[in-house]
Design goal:
Helix 2 runs parallel beside helix 3 and helix 6 packs antiparallel against helix 7. The protein folds into two domains: 261 residues, no CATH class; 61 residues, no CATH class. It has eleven helices and nine strands. The chain is an alpha/beta fold. Helix 3 links the parallel strand 4 and strand 5. A six-stranded mixed sheet has the order 2-3-1-4-5-6, sandwiched between helices. A three-stranded antiparallel sheet has the order 7-9-8. The radius of gyration is 22 Å and the shape is globular.
């Protein structure tokens, strides 16, 4: 029976946010709860799963370096305590931002590789808004990313990463990972997989997977809200034939690149002044640009509140006041009609 360990870290960080993520911002899954969360029948494939831990948080600001370092050190320490490891299933996101660390996911994965050695198989699950680098690809054996945005295939993606890992352990067949960066970055509202052009582009991935020797095809939109050198869209393909994998990877990259001018907001969008000068008479939701929930932005848009007051708009729920003091004043002030 082969033994694999499961764990990872997942969040996306806006480098423009002044609010740093701290330890208490993360929730943790470990033990049987983490194995149950992955929801994969490992015993069917003669695999014994062991849990390290999976830390995750809602999108937020940068992660304090001391917080990142402590979590990585704890993960590596727990990994070292395992006697024999044949495989690792890493549940990641790909859009962490840690000051002074250019590629936090890459360094996390490299640290894992140094512990388990070259023969151990590593399979990684990613968000499609994650960033890919050579450091990541060079230290893993399998890669799977979400294919839907908004994300409704989280567990399916874990399953894809797991099935490639267990198949690799049992078959001993080599997997080749091909990847290409695509120099395009757009926000989540411009790249939903439920509207064109991404709807058609992502449907092509399943067609590519039907090609002989292609195991799993991926397209990552990348993460526009972190100002880093690694920020880019990317195509990633798993294959048993490196030449064919490279060709399909290039096709996916070109497919996205050739449709880049069609990536547009799938809702009305514009400057604040334009929106407030053209308000409809019925119910309306106004949101600042950013993948839900605001891609780690603080949502503290005082100019929106200023325009609400200026245009004397009543019966408004304003959900972006970061100051508890201001919120209390507004709530208790009888002159306002917001609450």
């Amino acid at each position: 029976m082969y033994k694999i360990v499961i764990g990872g870290i997942s969040t996306e960080c806006s480098s423009y946010s002044p609010l740093f993520q701290k330890t208490h911002d993360f929730k943790r899954l470990e033990g049987h709860k983490l194995i149950h969360y992955i929801d994969f029948d490992f015993q069917k494939y003669n695999i014994e799963p062991k849990s390290i831990f999976f830390d995750f948080s809602l999108p937020g600001g940068p992660i304090k370096k001391s917080v990142y370092d402590k979590k990585k050190e704890e993960f590596v320490s727990r990994l070292k305590s395992q006697k024999k490891i044949d495989g690792v299933l890493l549940i990641m996101h790909g859009a962490m931002y840690v000051p002074k660390i250019q590629d936090p996911e890459g360094e996390w994965i490299l640290a894992v590789r140094k512990v388990v050695g070259k023969k151990c198989l590593i399979s990684v699950s990613y968000d499609l808004h994650g960033q890919v680098t050579d450091l990541i690809i060079n230290n893993i054996n399998y890669f799977a990313a979400f294919k839907s945005a908004p994300h409704i295939d989280v567990k399916e993606t874990y399953n894809r990463a797991a099935i490639m890992l267990v198949d690799g352990l049992n078959s001993k067949k080599k997997n080749y990972i091909s990847w290409l960066p695509i120099p395009v970055l757009v926000s989540g509202e411009m790249s939903s997989t439920f509207v064109e052009p991404c709807k058609s582009i992502y449907s092509k991935l399943d067609e590519f997977n039907k090609i002989k020797n292609i195991r799993d095809s991926n397209l990552l939109i990348g993460y526009v809200w972190a100002d880093t050198f690694r920020a880019t869209a990317a195509a990633v393909v798993n294959s048993s034939d490196e030449l064919i994998g490279s060709k399909i990877c290039k096709k996916i990259a070109n497919l996205y690149w050739n449709n880049r001018h069609e990536l547009k907001f799938d809702m009305k969008a514009g400057k604040i002044s334009e929106i407030f000068n053209n308000l409809p008479n019925d119910f309306l939701i106004i949101a600042d640009s950013g993948d839900n929930p605001t891609a780690g932005g603080v949502g503290d848009r005082a100019e929106v509140l200023q325009n609400i007051i200026k245009h004397k708009i009543k019966k408004v729920l304003f959900a972006g006041i970061a100051s508890p003091k201001v919120f209390k004043i507004l709530k208790t002030n009888n002159k306002t009609n917001f609450f």
